[in-house]
Amino acid sequence: MKTYLGSALLAALFLSMPAAALAGQDMVADHGAVWQTKKIGAATQGFIQIHNTGISGDVLTGWSCPVADTTTLVDAGGKPLQSLDIPAGQRVTLAPDGPHLVLQGTHFAIAMGSVLPCAFSFQNAGNIAVYLSSIPAPAGG
User: Fold this and answer.
1) How many helices (H) and strands (E) does the chain have?
2) Tell me: the pLDDT tens digits for 57-84?
3) DSSP string of 103-137?
4) Environment class of residue 16 by beta-carbon count within 10 Å: exposed (0-12), middle (13-18) or buried (19+)?
5) Is there a contact between 51 and 118 (Cβ–Cβ < 8 Å)?
6) Smallest Cα–Cα separation from 135: which of 119, 117, 120, 115?
7) Which of 66, 30, 69, 36 shows the shortest CA–CA distance to 51?
8) Three-class SS of residue 3?
9) Which among 28, 98, 39, 85 has a CA at the least distance from the CA of 58?
């Protein structure tokens, strides 16, 4: 009985923890979006929120979306970035008016409702999978 109760308490503890904590990662990425496209090979932009739930800062050092020939992290002016600091306990948003992803040479048209898998690499947290859901592109975009 004692072993069963101890195991049940341990299982309850693990089940109550977020998955990122179990994996030892302090990065959570959510609310990912990408603008839909009408043709193969079109460039598009990706956006997402990155939460650093840890007690120390980290650095986004790599990004990849296999649905495109190239994925580049750029600043608000379109200049390529080599990395992006993610301060401890903070949220950094990749958005149209700030740093964001540019996917060039898409392998198919990005239809409304599509979900694109991508990957981010962090200096300390390692690699995490992220997903971008397609949304309508702005008028003229």
Assistant:
1) 2, 9
2) 999 999 999 999 999 999 999 999 999 9
3) EEEESS---TT-EEEEEEEETTTEEEEEEEEEEPP
4) exposed
5) no
6) 115
7) 30
8) helix
9) 85
